[in-house]
Write a structure and sequence with these properties.
alpha+beta; Cytochrome p450; 4-stranded mixed β-sheet; 3-stranded antiparallel β-sheet; binds protoporphyrin IX containing FE
Length: 548
């Protein structure tokens, strides 16, 4: 009965009321009419449906960037225009120069709030400044180095566990996307919150499971009505959007499920820690994440204080943002070195040189990892070609003018070096495209070539926080955990390569091998087998034990 009422509400009443009026209003209010862009295949869905259902992420966007330049107009649902940009100067202006003038788009803010509550990922302006002020010290390089041996221990535990998989002399095909998040969850749990998820031991991970359903299930290839529901929700005022959430769709239900599970874990972590802090009279002044959060909850200075709800949201945010991102990036990295065995051998040689220098059983220091220029070049190249967050949705907080480094040609044939936008204009910052621009990375931008990072890459373009890449975002909202992620990638890669060799999986049934691994458009860039996306995240690699 309830579901029938909901379907009637969603399918008949809302579109009847909203579509004609909204369409006319939006069509005439469009501020990007002067820009070129792909034709609108459907009045109702614009280009949004074809973007969401394309087989592999980036195919359409690449075609359009090649045709219209590094900033173009695409159509959203209900007649709205969307600006898609990969121009370096535009990205710099929106994320770095303008600080908070281009907030997150309404729907991405709604979605992150639904998943994590009011944590650093969802809040804006002054509140965001306060959250970052509390959290930043916990992510400083000196602070993170203290966790290096924990990263190494966990990587070794993962390797031990994989070794028990009876690899035999010919090796065994292992879906690495199953294993890597177990290690990164254990790492974030212990280093940030002194909390033992025991994910590698138990081989289960409730949060990872919900995460997989959330992206691989609900966000991948959504049904048309889910897309309309989402678009409708983002275009109405917050009170009405909140009311609509009383009738959640599949995607929203899974996000709420994640939110409940992560907040439950966050609460138990936080209660234990604050009890301990009170017992110790709050004398602990360490800068790990949990300590800074507990202290912020007790702080009297409003500029440094977080409410309990904000603290729990922070913990939930860091648990997800801090483990699946690195694990998926690591899967893509292993995919690339499997496809390029000569590079795998070269890293291994570099690792052996380090071992010869420091001893077979010595623990590596941060400086040892940093000294391996090829290993680091491989990490950068994987981050460049496979940015797990492929695009960021923003909107103009006020009327503005966005400068371009590479001018585009308008509908009337005029050359434009600036794009005027009206308040509320939706903008998609295309990280995946920027990371492959020939203008920035050279003619072989689409090709795997880690050596590009062995040369000096500090040209006059500087975007983002690391190596001229947009993979970790940029500006005031850049990824807080980018150094943490790099250290994890170094430690896990070193440890796994020291024990195992990664080879292409043999064909099986309709699966032809690595050529059938795709980057599917599920909000994040996650790997799946072509035509088999119901199996969820998949990166099957043939793992062989190295003889030492
Ligand atoms: C390879 C791994 C990672 C990638 C590619 C990545 C990517 C990103 C990107 C692109 C953003 C910006 C989103 C936006 O502007 O809307 C971001 C934000 C964020 N990331 Fe990461 N991330 C990674 C690892 C981590 C880790 C390990 C942590 C925590 C330990 C973390 C915590 C966060 C948080 C809290 C934010 C929100 C920052 C803010 O809004 O102030 N990330 N990440």
């Amino acid at each position: 009965m309830f579901s029938a009422v909901k379907s009637v509400f969603l399918l008949i009443l809302l579109p009847l009321l909203y579509i004609p009026l909204g369409f006319v209003y939006r069509y005439y209010r469009r501020s990007l009419k002067f820009l070129r862009g792909p034709p609108r295949p459907s009045l109702l869905f614009g280009n949004e449906l074809e973007l969401t259902v394309q087989e592999e992420l980036g195919i359409l966007e690449t075609k359009w960037f090649n045709k219209y330049g590094l900033a173009f107009r695409a159509s959203s649902c209900f007649g709205e225009d969307m600006l898609i940009v990969a121009d370096p100067q535009a990205l710099r202006y929106i994320t770095m120069t303008s600080a908070y003038r281009f907030p997150k788009s309404t729907d991405s803010a709604q979605i992150t709030t639904l998943q994590f509550g009011r944590g650093v990922l969802s809040v804006e302006g002054e509140v965001h400044v306060r959250h970052r002020k509390v959290l930043n010290p916990a992510f400083a390089a000196t602070q993170l180095r203290q966790f290096l041996s924990l990263f190494q221990r966990t990587a070794a535990k993962l390797a031990d566990r994989l070794q028990q998989e009876e690899l035999g002399k010919d090796g065994k095909v292992i879906n690495v996307t199953h294993w890597l998040p177990l290690a990164t969850l254990d790492i974030i749990g212990e280093s940030a919150f002194d909390y033992n998820f025991g994910a590698i031991d138990r081989q289960t991970n409730e949060l990872s499971q919900i995460f997989k359903n959330m992206f691989a299930g609900a966000r991948l290839y959504p049904q048309k009505r889910s897309l309309l529901y989402r678009v409708f929700r983002r275009s109405v005022d917050t009170p009405l959007a909140n009311l609509l959430l009383k009738f959640p769709g599949r995607q929203e239900r899974q996000m709420m499920e994640f939110s409940v599970a992560s907040k439950r874990i966050a609460k138990s972590v936080f209660d234990a820690a604050s009890k301990e802090a009170k017992l110790e009279g709050n004398t602990k002044y360490s800068k790990d994440v949990l300590s800074v959060l507990v202290r912020s909850n007790m702080a009297e200075d409003p500029k440094k204080a977080l409410s309990e709800d904000e603290v729990l949201s922070q913990i939930a945010t860091l648990i997800l943002a801090g483990h699946e991102t690195t694990a998926s990036t690591m899967s893509w990295l292993l995919y690339e070195i499997t496809r390029h065995p000569q590079d795998q051998a070269r890293i291994y040689q570099e690792m052996q040189d380090v071992r010869e220098r420091i001893g077979q059983d010595a623990e590596l220091t941060a400086a040892d990892y940093d000294s391996m220029s090829f290993l680091n070049a491989v990490i950068k190249e994987a981050l460049r070609l496979h940015p797990i967050v492929p695009s960021i949705a923003r909107e103009a907080g006020s009327d503005d003018i966005i400068p371009l480094e590479y001018p585009v040609v308008s509908e009337s044939g005029e050359t434009l070096s600036h794009i005027p936008v009206s308040k509320g204009q939706r903008i998609s910052l295309d990280i995946a495209m920027y990371n492959r621009l020939t203008q920035v990375w050279g003619d072989d931008a689409n090709t795997w070539r880690p050596d590009r990072f062995m040369q000096d890459t500090k040209k006059n373009i500087t975007v983002g926080v690391y190596s001229n890449l947009m993979t970790f975002g940029a500006g005031v909202r850049a990824c807080i955990g980018w150094r943490f992620a790099l250290m994890e990638l170094q430690a896990i890669l070193f440890c796994l390569l020291e024990r195992f060799e990664f080879c292409p999986p043999p064909p099986e049934g309709s699966f032809r091998g690595l050529e059938d691994i795709q980057r599917v458009p599920a909000g994040l860039m996650i790997p799946m087998k072509r035509g088999n996306w119901r199996e969820g995240l998949q990166m099957p690699l043939l793992m062989k034990l190295r003889r030492r």
